[in-house]
Structure formats: structure tokens, C-alpha cells
Recover the amino acids of this structure.
């Protein structure tokens, strides 16, 4: 799952160089190497300007990752905020026990048993 999130958020660029219709080089992190047949235009005078058509071409493919993964709590409507707050509150209390002392009879000692009234009256719960 982490790999899927990483790949969906990473942006990268693929540079490719073609000489005519032939694929020469491709690069993921830098510029692709050329075939060395680049036309260098050197104009010696402004009157004589000769330009040749270059047979080489560069192609650049840009893959942009997803930028909006984090949803802001402020963009939720009131019902959604209430649900998230209640969910977090109940989820946190799942793991912690309440430390209240429910033993309210701690200081109370029962009276001594003189006779067993249930046996004397023969009253038994079934």
C-alpha cells in the first residue's frame, strides 16, 4: 500500500532523443544524450543566413503525481466534523480503562451471620 501511495505522488520526466525515426537515447533523471548530428548554425554575416532542417528531435514526457492527498479538517461540513470528532473520541477510549473506583462498599462491613434465614424459612431461588 505504501508503494502505491509513493508511486502515485512522485512526479518524473522522461527525455527521449530520436535521430530521424530511430530511437537513440532515453533518460529518466537528466537530459538524453544526442547522436552528435545537431546542426550548429553559425551566421557569419547578417546578409547570408542559411538554415538547415534538423533531422533530430527531442521528446519530453512529464508525469505529474497527485498533490492533494491531505484533506483539510476545515473543508469538511459540520456533520462530517461532528462524526470525525465522535469517532476519534470513542476510538481513544477503546484502549484506556476508566480509573474510577466503583467499590462504594469498601468501608462497610456486613453484620455477622447469626442464622441462615433462607434455610430457616426454606426460601430458595431456583
Amino acid at each position: 500500500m505504501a508503494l502505491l501511495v509513493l508511486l502515485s505522488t512522485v512526479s518524473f520526466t522522461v527525455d527521449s532523443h530520436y535521430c530521424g525515426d530511430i530511437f537513440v537515447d532515453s533518460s529518466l533523471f537528466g537530459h538524453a544524450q544526442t547522436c552528435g548530428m545537431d546542426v550548429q548554425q553559425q551566421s557569419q554575416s547578417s546578409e547570408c543566413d542559411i538554415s538547415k532542417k534538423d533531422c533530430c528531435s527531442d521528446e519530453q514526457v512529464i508525469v505529474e503525481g497527485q498533490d492533494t492527498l491531505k484533506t483539510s479538517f476545515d473543508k469538511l461540513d459540520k456533520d462530517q466534523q461532528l462524526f470525525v470528532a465522535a469517532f476519534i473520541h470513542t476510538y481513544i477510549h477503546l484502549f484506556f480503562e476508566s480509573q474510577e473506583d466503583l467499590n462504594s462498599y469498601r468501608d462497610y462491613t456486613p453484620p455477622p451471620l447469626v442464622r441462615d434465614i433462607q434455610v430457616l424459612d426454606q426460601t430458595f431461588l431456583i
